[in-house]
Amino acid sequence: MLEHCGVILQQIEMIQEDLSLNSGKLSGHITLGLPPTIAKLLSLPIIREFRQHLPDAQLRITEGLSAQLQGRLQQGKIDMALLYNPAYSADVKTQLLYEERLYLMAPKNDCLLNADTPVNAEHLAALPLILPSVPNTFRLLVEQEMARHNLVPNIVMEIDSVETMLQLVAEGMGYSILSKYSIDLMNYKESIQVIPIESPQFVSRLFLRLRPNMRLRARRKKRIRF
């Protein structure tokens, strides 16, 4: 996912309203919104590259759930954001950056499941799930995919913190559905096993979206490399 920092920086360079070109240098202010887990992974690389390639400009990073960030974009409070599975909008520039499968998170010593045996929708419906609250996009994705199989997830806890969800899973209080890199970021490899989900596969998509009606300048010849 780190390679997509270059795409983000190139889009920032092209923003007309907030970055002005003076003496061949771009200056001004840009606000970038990131979901919490993505912020943990990408904030530092983005800031490093921003300072290297745009030293006369200022970057502000704000965190929020994708639904919250989408609202801030619509209101013009932020300039661009990374969003999971955003609703379609014809008046904004949106670019797909990344697709990832979601997996079932189970306690390491779980006696019913193991990482070598995928689970399906029927298995998931029987498990006590710990998921974020609506309108979290992962939660909506799980509900929509299970509804296609005429099933309803058994949600026993609604937790909006990825780290807290993983703590609860590690303690055997339920199961969760998250991206595989979540346990890497939160250092839960030793206490949680990652189990593939088949039929259906839950595929989450990460998009870069600009605020409505934002004007872009022509791409500069200089290419940012990572």
UniProtKB/TrEMBL annotation:
GO MF, one example: DNA-binding transcription factor activity
Annotated LysR substrate-binding domain residues: 24-219
A Gene Ontology biological process term: regulation of DNA-templated transcription initiation
Keywords: Activator
Domain of life (superkingdom): Bacteria
UniProt-recorded name of the protein: LysR family transcriptional regulator
Organism: Neisseria weixii
